[in-house]
Amino acid sequence: MNISRKEFLKSATAVAGILSAQKIFSQNPRPNRPANPGSSPKTAIVLGGGLSGLYSAYLLNKTGIKVTVIEANKRMGGRIFSFSDADSNVTSELGGEWISDSHRNIKSVIRELDLKTIAHNVKPEFSIGTGNKSNPAGELSEKSKNLLQKVSGLYRNMGATQKRGLDKLDLFGYLRYQGIEKNDLELMNLRFSGYYGENISHVSASRALSDIPDLENSYSIRNRISGGSSALILALQEKLKDSEIISGDPVTEISQDQLSVTVKTLQARIITADICICAIPANVISDISWTPELPKEKKLSALQLGYSRISKLSFNVSSETTGLKNFQITGNSPVRFLYPASDLNSGQQTISATAIGDLSEIFAGSGADEKKAFLEECIARVGMSANAQISGITGIAWQDEPYIRGGIALFSPGSFDIQSNLRKPFNRVFFAGEHLASQPGSMEAAITSAIEAVNSI
């Protein structure tokens, strides 16, 4: 099915020139296309009501395809979750949040949906140790900067075999072997763990070195969606109001033949369509019974791909606290990241915080009093007033969320082929999700993967 250039430019797929109208539903045969390539699909099932799923459905709907969206959880939005505090009237993000200058796709979608962004223009500070900002600017030593530049240059000139070999090592161990100083390793772990959602000892050295440009820019000027990231989810749902959207009903079986795909759900729904886009986390794919069975390499890759352990929190702090006006602090305290979700208002300020890895597990399993004690320790360790009054603690541990089970796709050592295996279509089923794009863990990745999935049909 070809769509006009006018219609194409109206859609958010017209981003940075990466797609053309001729690519979407092109009649030219291509590998992995569904059988019967001479006819364009008229119906589609989209699995997953997160950002990549809803945007995939939106793109398909724009071309006239009848879409059914199925979400396992009752809440739509996946790992996007904006929390509005009734007392402070402040919206904070417990899920996807940041948009950087390089995120062209998501910015284009925001414009098309008549949403706006607000800047978070603060200079990050880094705290190593107790109660002091030993390296506020987060600057590496000149020696470590030169070594990092050297290994990045070596990586760019490596062949596939060398990169595959490097994939056996974790980033922390590899950089230590290359001579990065201990203090700088700690600092890099603080800086980059926000990007990966885990300490860099959990990340493939090969994967991380390919991410170096994005890692270096991860603390550049960033933006949020005005009114909360969930406004994007609501806007897409509004665009899909004439489509069938099913929530709270997990898919249990997917079967396909040369002409169609049939999906069965836990509540005994049976839905058949011409094609399907599977936009669910990779670690949920193996929960589904597939007929025919998934290719071995795809099944193994879905089992191998890890997800980071992330707890995102929101809490209120009294106005007596010092140093809260404009900050973004990363420290090796129980909660790794602290930044304001609001300005000081009516005697208090709303703060957002993130715990990762083992500390996310500990925090998630703690009671209310323990959580409060953790947060009091965190704000004291980064130099804020020890007399701060903390209230209104709320949060979500993404590793404990049903049908999500983690924060950010994590490419650990030994994951070299995982992304390419998971990206490949399987007959009439195509795949989307943040784990399939070049910047996993971002809303940009979710949007980009949806564009690529629709473009591969």
Structure characterization notes:
A six-stranded mixed sheet has the order 7-17-18-19-16-20, with helices on both faces. The protein has helices at 5-10, 51-62, 104-112, 142-156, 160-166, 171-177, 182-196, 205-210, 212-216, 230-239, 282-285, 296-304, 357-364, 368-381, 418-423, 443-455; strands spanning 43-47, 66-71, 82-85, 90-93, 99-100, 117-120, 125-127, 222-225, 244-247, 251-256, 261-265, 270-273, 275-278, 289-291, 306-307, 310-318, 329-331, 337-340, 348-356, 390-397, 409-410, 429-431. It has 16 helices and 22 strands. The model is unreliable at 1-35 (pLDDT under 50). The N and C termini lie close together (10 Å). 32% of the residues lie in helices and 21% in strands. The radius of gyration is 22 Å and the shape is globular. A hairpin with a 4-residue loop joins strand 10 (251-256) and strand 11.
